[in-house]
Amino acid sequence: MATILVTGGTGTLGRPLIDRLLEDGHDVRSLSRRPHTGTERPRLRSYAVDLRDGTGLAEALAGVDTVVHCATAPTGGDTEAAGRLLDAARRAGVRHLLYISIVGVDRVPLRYYRTKLAVERLIADSGVGWTVLRTTQFHDLVLQLVKAGARSPVLPVPPGVRVQPVEVREVADRLAELAAGAPAGRVPDMGGPEVLTARDLARATLTAGGRRRLLLPVWLPGAAAAALRRGGNLTPEHAEGLRTYAEFLAERAG
Ligand SMILES: NC(=O)c1ccc[n+]([C@@H]2O[C@H](COP(=O)([O-])OP(=O)(O)OC[C@H]3O[C@@H](n4cnc5c(N)ncnc54)[C@H](OP(=O)(O)O)[C@@H]3O)[C@@H](O)[C@H]2O)c1
Question: Which residues, if any, are the signal sequence (predicted)?
Fold first, then answer.
């Protein structure tokens, strides 16, 4: 059994990952700006650390074998945060740093994707043993985006854009397996079981929520949208996820 620190341990991915690592018998540390709340659990310690300044990071990393880096702030600062984490991990003698990235970060020129790619490169050059897993979008993100769009009576949907959503608990399971192993470099991508159009996903989400909205096709300009229409965000050859988006919605409704 190992001592494993999960950055972003309070996030959508961090929480099921911590559950799985605890089930597997590891000593687990959860790091995020706000402390990990919920039921007290033996073998789980919470560290309130802001990776943007690093105060308390050395203490959180002392005695850690493996770091799973899930923390992210889409508003910016992820590259600096990763650099600070890597420096501290090297100093603490961490043997393995595992990073969760996104399928297509090298094909779709979205700003957030460019940052993820820059972080992947920092990790590969860091001298710390590393593994990078890229996955497709989590079901939760699709739900969140459609819900946000459905605040207005007309929901814009980009024609030609497809998504291959994956169940976050299955991603957590894969990360837990990788975290228990040796550094493996870039491992095969992981995608959900189905490739669905943005329109189908919006329609399914609205139906499950009992909402009616007009779906308005809106052609998105620019290189990133063109890359999405070419399927740069998809990995149909790695459709390993089992749980479908429809099953996810049904569970939420229940
Ligand atoms: N969502 C997707 O569809 C998807 C798909 C593929 C890969 N990924 C990747 O998976 C990872 C996790 O995504 P997620 O959806 O679980 O994100 P999330 O729910 O937004 O969680 C982000 C986590 O990072 C923490 N955090 C943010 N800024 C921090 C900082 N400065 N210092 C310390 N902790 C900080 C947050 O807690 P506090 O706010 O309390 O600090 C939270 O625990 C990300 O790297 C993302 O790119 C996501």
Answer: none
Nearest residue to 7 (alpha-carbon basis) of 80, 140, 138, 100: 100
52/8 Cα distance (integer angstroms): 13
For the chain, helix (H) and strand (E) counts, in that order, are 9, 11
Helix (H) or strand (E) holding 96: strand 96-102
Q: Which residues line ligand 1 (CB under 6 A)?
A: 7-14, 32-34, 49-52, 70-73, 81, 100, 102, 116, 135, 137-138, 141
The fold of the 3-135+168-186 domain, in CATH, is Rossmann fold (3.40.50)
pLDDT in tens, 63-119: 999 999 999 998 899 999 999 999 999 999 999 999 999 999 999 999 999 999 999
Mean pLDDT throughout 164-187?
98
Which two three-digit tokens encode residue 52? 């943007």
C-alpha of residue 213 to centroid of ligand 1, in Å:
30
Name, in order, each residue with C-beta under 8 angstroms of 152's C-beta and a sequence gap of 6 or more: 213
